[in-house]
Model the fold of this input.
Amino acid sequence: MKMNNLWKSLKDRAVLFSILLSLGLTFSLCLSYVDWQDVLNEGNTPTAQAFDTATPPAPAGGSSTQESSTFKKIVTAPVRLFARLFRRNDNNIAKTAAPVPRTADSAVATAIEREAASVFDQAVELHEKKQLDAAIAKLTAVVGMQPNNSEAYNLLGVCFDEKGQYREAQDEYKKAIQLEPINARFLNNLGYSYYLGSNDKQAIKWYQKALKLTPDDRRIMNNLGLAYGRRGDYVKAKDQFVKAVGEHGAHLNLGYIYSQQGRYQQAIDQFEIALKLQPNSLVTMTSLAQVYDRVGRARESAMLQDQYKKLTSNTQRVQTAEKQEKEEDR
Done:
């Protein structure tokens, strides 16, 4: 009698396991019919920059040939913080999802964990390809299997932000924060979502919460400064910018904010101060020249553009000479 009951129990568990796998396969097949959309806004407004939090960017304000790229990524744009999007066998994981608690049926639990990890990896790849609807569908499946997966909720928020659905994004970030209340990335991302939705008061609130946890994170300081600046609190904005990107970068940031607000004379004042601090700064020259053009100061703009061309030409010659020397030394 005991053997019969044991056999029946094992059969019931096997049936349950088969049903779960079938549902997973059916869901995967259904996803192939999802209408994928690439609606990431790549306009002139500040945009998110994804990067590994293990390697924070250098402060802006240098005079290297990479300065223009640094300015775009660090100075002018608020950032959404990502951990390394984890995959299996990745030793550089910044933050992993909470595992599903083990049940009596460990085989079924393990199968669910593996399926969730696989679907999450697929969602990451879809997001990287900007196939946002498909990524959202996959992530919805993940949180269905793993309701405590904070990273899945966070990435859902990212996807909704990139679709311009800020309320939905904020709901997802809040779910992630409920699971990990002291995760500075999630707090920053919620603040960033409010910034995208033009709710600077809420953006500042959540950026400040994030900074309390990671007070030395210059990226969040920069975000906070941008939110202060858009609200018109330029003193607090500059204070954050100086801490985030230094004096030169702070004036570049303020010039950027004034320019976005149509306050071109104030923008010119800030860019001119920045140029005095670093006379060979290529990004400062181009920024100032653009504003000169907007206010009809064509001669001054042309002079800056000529100076820019000479500097870049000299830089290219130096780089070419260095490259030739390296090749000769081989």
User: Anything to note?
Assistant: Residues 110-215 form a domain with the Serine Threonine Protein Phosphatase 5, Tetratricopeptide repeat fold (CATH 1.25.40.10).
